[in-house]
Amino acid sequence: MKFHFFHLMPYPDLPDDFRERYHGVWVDLPAAELFDPMTGHQAYNDYLDELEFADQVGFDGICVNEHHQNAYGLMPSPNLMMAALARRTTRSKLIVMGDSVALYNPPTRVAEETAMLDVLSGGRLVAGFPVGTPMDTVYCYGETPATLRDKYREGVQLVLRAWQATEPFAFNGRYTQLRYVNIWPRPMQKPHPPVWIPGGGSVETWDWCADHNFLYAYLSYFGYLRARRVMEGFWEAVERRNLEPNPYRAGFLQFVGVADNDAEAERLYARHALYFYNRCLHLYPGFTSPPGYTSLATIRQGIEGQIKLAADRNKELQDLTWPQILERGYVVAGSPDSVVQQLTEMEETLRVGHLMVLLHFGDMPRDTVFYNTRRFAEEVVPRLRPMWSEWRDEWWPATETPSPSGRGLG
Amino acid sequence: MAESVALGGNRQAVVHRAGEGSAVVWLHSLYGVDADAPVINALARRYSVFAPVAPGFSDLAELDEIRDIHDLALHYDDVLEALDLSSPVVAGHSFGAMVAAELAAHVPKRVSRLVLLSPLGLWNDRYPVTDLFGVPPAEVPAMLYADTTLAPGSGPQPDVESVISLVRGMTTVARFLWPIPDRGISRRLHRVRAPTLVVHGQEDRFVPAAYVNDWLALLPDARGEVIPGAGHMLTVEALDRTLAAVEAFLGQVEAFA
Questions:
Q1: Is B167 on the interface with A (CB under 8 A)?
Q2: Helix, strand, coil % (nearest 5) of chain A?
Q3: What is the pTM of this model?
Q4: If you write DSSP's letter for every residue of A213-234 in order, what string do you get?
Q5: What is the per-residue pLDDT for A199?
Q6: Is it the case that residue A156 has pLDDT exceeding 90?
Q7: What is the Cα–Cα distance from A25 to A9, expressed in whole angstroms?
Q8: Most CB contacts within 10 A, which of A17, A172, A354, B157?
Q9: What tens digit of pLDDT does each residue of B101-138 get?
Q10: DSSP for residue A140
Q11: Residues 117 to 156 of B: which have CB under 8 A from any A CB?
């Protein structure tokens, strides 16, 4: 199994009466009123320290992502964050999770920036391509919901072709038309960096990932119990194609808190988890379901997107308690034994080779994040590591040695 | 009565027909042609009404070919050609009124009289159109109706197919309205030849009534009427007063074929 440290980079200073005063954390939350640049400065630097620490304690990958106009995650540009990390890490693979391809005009920008990151890092890049949430894509970036997915897929195909083309080509797409495509630099990894697709439960995404041999990652805040149905859908799509059910085709995201015991876990992590669920997931229902964003097939299937799920649960999240968070599996927390046991059960249920963990919750202070990260790396990872070792991971950079670093000033 | 008419490019259009008399083409509102039955039936008492179903409303795949507002305007030109309607009255409500105005601007000779009821399509920074797609479904009636008791009841939980049908319609509408409903019509309205009537509800919380003035300023030959007490859904909330305004307008001008 592989383990990746995922950071959401939330804004850590939302007021206690946030839910009463603002209708949501995304799109139109007044930045001039709530965003303090000094708080942001400290947060960015703490968060990058935490990601660098994850590299030092042996995480296989470190992950950042892209969101716009919100206090849930301060990363409109994941590539900027990863560029900073590429210079300060040597071992972890760099998982950009990822660039919302439809929002880049032209999408060759994504091919260029990911190639830059791959070359800069010595071939450590994993390129994630999410569609993007409705808030990010439709409400913040003005994308037409009905054409978003089609535009996204065309963009991904353009990026793949731009990475690999052996000569300049013209691209006559429905959404992008370019006379000359010829990116400089080209990625270091051949034929190209691994492609991971973060999904929220869309039916079409399962088939698309299986058809193109992309890794499918389900990013859920609502626990592995609820994720079972989504992952089953993906594994059925794999089976329909007679592909091997290699667990490394799949990834999953989980909040984890490691402590001496349950009481210490509550003391260290509870209020920060509640900050995340109460404030960072306070989504205005008007911004979660633009018509056309969810395909008719997915509506028929009755699988609700992550985002809509969070919005529909808004009231429930308001009254959420730490025991409920644990009972429902939103957060896996406790002693190392307890965490190992819960994650083993999760692994057996979901069959994922790539476990992305969130060890920073909401407004957790840096020291607590370091504590949680070290304990996870030292007391949990080694015991789960052997799982799935009979399978070969084809969705991972082949680069095994530490990447070449700078020459320094000497 | 509905019939399917064949268009070029292997396309088809479903057109509902009712009544006898001079031809009036009705372009439906946000909720499709069935939801407009009251106004269609009322018009059918005096006119021969042709009500095409907008592309996308019954099959989203139709939007593969009808991608932008120009495709849509020319699609309706094709539909009227197939129906042998050389220059009928063209009327529409809300989204339908926007399409009617686009048709009249793209192909001026196709339209003899133009009736725009609570039209979308313009944008004024001083009184922006409310974001129909940025409110929870439960709040939509308060945006569309001055008197929300006239909105379709919440009733029992709708079945999956009616939800799908609603989503299909709104997906189509969003394709042509999102994020800003002005798709350039303000640059084209000078082309419209048809005498035009613009009717708006005074209490419209979706498209403010002040937009009547923007339409009158841009259309070469237009008159406006604002109906007190009515919201966006004129054809539900103020059907009689709306029809009276339409019939007075059509009666003022000489008989049409």
A1: yes
A2: 45, 15, 40
A3: 0.94
A4: T-EEEEE-SSHHHHHHHHHHHH
A5: 86
A6: yes
A7: 14
A8: A354
A9: 999 999 999 999 999 999 999 999 999 999 999 998 88
A10: I
A11: 131, 133-136, 139
- Other beta carbons within 10 angstroms of residue A410's beta carbon come to 3
Assigned token pair, A340: 């190992």
Domains of chain A: 2-384 (3.20.20.30)
SS3 state of residue A48: helix
Q: Which residues, listed in sequence order, are joined to residue A245 by a DSSP beta bridge?
A: none
How far, in Å, CA of A21 to CA of B156, rounded? 33
What SS3 string covers B139-174?
HHHHHHCCCHHHCCCCCCCCCHHHHHHHHHHHHHHH
Distance CA A280, CA A317 (A): 10
- Given this model, what pLDDT does residue A112 score? 98
Residues of chain B neighbouring A144 (CB-CB closer than 8 A): 174-175, 178
Closest residue on chain B to A142 (Cα) = B179
Residue A170 scores a pLDDT above 70: yes
Residues of chain B contacting A142 with CB distance shorter than 8 Å: 178-179
Nearest to A9 by CA among A54, A37, A38, A51: A51
Cross-chain CB nearest to B174 (options A144, A287, A296): A144
Tokens of A345: 């059960």
Q: Which of A241, A297, A289, A338 is CA-nearest to residue A139?
A: A289
Decide: B55 and B168 in contact? Cβ < 8 Å. Answer: no
Hey, are the CB atoms on B164 and A146 less than 8 Å from each other? no
Beta bridge partners of A169: A181
pLDDT class for A88, splitting at 50, 70, 90? very high
Domains along the sequence of chain B with CATH: 2-252 (3.40.50.1820)
Cβ–Cβ < 8 Å for A120, A86: yes
What CA–CA distance (Å, rounded) separates A338 from A336? Answer: 5
The whole-angstrom separation of Cα A26 and Cα A258 is: 30
Cβ neighbors of B60 (< 8 A, separation 6 or more) are A146, A296, B168, B171, B172
A181 touches A171 (CB < 8 A): yes
Q: What ipTM did this prediction achieve?
A: 0.92
For A35-72, what is each residue's pLDDT tens digit? 999 999 999 999 999 999 999 999 999 999 999 999 99
The rounded distance, in Å, linking the Cα atoms of B120 and B177 is: 8
| Beta strand residue intervals within chain B, DSSP E | 2-7, 11-18, 23-27, 48-52, 89-93, 113-117, 196-201, 222-227
Residue A89 tokens read as 């890490």
